[in-house]
Amino acid sequence: MNPLQNALRARQLGPYVCSRCTKQMRHQRRCYVTSTAPSIPEIYDVVCVGGGPAGLSLLTALRSSPATSNLKVALIESQSLTPTSNFSLPAPQFSNRCSSLTPASVQFLDRIGAWKHVDRERVQPYEEMQVWDGVSGARIEFLWPQGEKGKTIAYMNENSNLTSGLLRRLDELGGVNVFEGEKVGDIAMGEDGKGLDLRGWPVISLKGGRKLAARLLVGADGQNSPVRQFSGIGSRGWDYGRHGVVATLQLETVGADDGKVAYQRFLPTGPVAMLPLPGNHATLVWSTKPEFAAHLTTLGTRDFMAMVNAAFRLSPVDLKFMHTMQKSQAGELAWREEHTTFDKLRIPASVIGVQEGSIASFPLKLRHADTYIGERVALVGDAAHTVHPLAGQGLNQGQGDVESLVKTIKYAVTHGQDIGVHMSLEPYNAERYAQNNLLMGVVDKLHKLYAVESGPVVPLRSLGLKAVNALGPLKHFLMSQAAGTGVKIL
């Protein structure tokens, strides 16, 4: 046993503790650390920076597995977790930050015991998706074949509902030291001193004064990840020159099944999607030019609703004209609807309300780290990749990262390997990088393909869309991939 392991045993830290102490550690609740900063670094097996869905899922998965439950783990989150823990909105209000969870992601959350803590009354599964070309009208209908009716394509859920459920599961498991409201001041390689040889270990200095040394440092800290910057891992990509506009909508009630279908229309300025929430509510994700996004966010409620309804009903030319109007879009839409023919059964129900304060916008980017691992460093979620929202796969990619990384850590622990070294982490990088890179490439090409408004590309892409819609086995395969239940493409 090396000097560091002896020191860890002496201080009863990490997995190298006696059986009696191990049993006590299993019953500790999630601990919010507020004590005075120690003079030497505290030793942890895993330190995760970032308390979003990816970071919380990682710690929950580690604590819920017998193979890794004895690891000493910590969470560093710059914001207070109290609002997330106490997430509650009166019905029928919904957060405008929603994600489409695939069945594969839900199955993973269920296996680690977190899904039961998510408020299911705020989750909306859907079994059908209508996608069409805003220029040509070519359409593809994603719905399961007759023999598979009742299968879910995805679950719409508020991000805060998910993180709240994960925090409740962590409270149930216990054994996580949480440094909330603590910002990372610096990350540097440790040194040999005071009886601990921390050379080659990341040491995280918090602005509050504490220092944490990590056998494995996990960056779940977003697209501007300090952990990625510390590790020297590069990130490549570009800005799309588009903004995403989100809002929580109230729909006109047409039938019992209305609102249980997801709709997406590809416009030259970007795709617009209306995704179902419980009751007659839906969440809007509209990717468009920055100047159009800015205009939309300044409109009154009535005119904003008119623009959303127009986005699913009118031609791109008509919609472009309405973007130039400073007001009175509602009257313009009413007039143009009288002179426009569209299939009311294949478009979403009319928007009749917008939740106050729910309209917001944000820039869209593509970013991909050069690798997901370094020596004693691993990246997950947005710290590793940021994708265009048109496929609704961002959060699911992060959950896939976490599942793969936890599997890799389990293997290292059960085979007596050091969980932080590059060799132990390589299986995670090999499994996830290729899959994520493929998905990001497909989504990027789709965005660029449907940004073309005229020319030979339009009929060709329309022909392809119609062909896929006519080929049942191919469409079934694509649905399985989108739901995360098909065979992985490597």
TrEMBL record:
GO terms for molecular function: 2-methoxy-6-polyprenolphenol 4-hydroxylase activity; 4-hydroxy-3-all-trans-polyprenylbenzoate oxygenase activity; FAD binding; oxidoreductase activity, acting on paired donors, with incorporation or reduction of molecular oxygen, reduced flavin or flavoprotein as one donor, and incorporation of one atom of oxygen. It comes from the Eukaryota. InterPro entries: FAD-bd, FAD/NAD-bd_sf, Ubi_Hdrlase_CS, UbiH/COQ6, UbiH/COQ6_monooxygenase, UbQ_mOase_COQ6. Its EC number is 1.14.15.45, 1.14.15.46. It is found in: Mitochondrion inner membrane. GO terms for cellular component: extrinsic component of mitochondrial inner membrane. It is a peripheral membrane protein. Residues 44-433 form the FAD-binding domain. It catalyses: a 2-methoxy-6-(all-trans-polyprenyl)phenol + 2 reduced [2Fe-2S]-[ferredoxin] + O2 + 2 H(+) = a 2-methoxy-6-(all-trans-polyprenyl)benzene-1,4-diol + 2 oxidized [2Fe-2S]-[ferredoxin] + H2O; a 4-hydroxy-3-(all-trans-polyprenyl)benzoate + 2 reduced [2Fe-2S]-[ferredoxin] + O2 + 2 H(+) = a 3,4-dihydroxy-5-(all-trans-polyprenyl)benzoate + 2 oxidized [2Fe-2S]-[ferredoxin] + H2O. Keywords: FAD, Flavoprotein, Membrane, Mitochondrion, Mitochondrion inner membrane, Monooxygenase, Oxidoreductase, Ubiquinone biosynthesis. Belongs to the UbiH/COQ6 family. Component of a multi-subunit COQ enzyme complex, composed of at least COQ3, COQ4, COQ5, COQ6, COQ7 and COQ9. This is Ubiquinone biosynthesis monooxygenase COQ6, mitochondrial. It comes from Calycina marina.
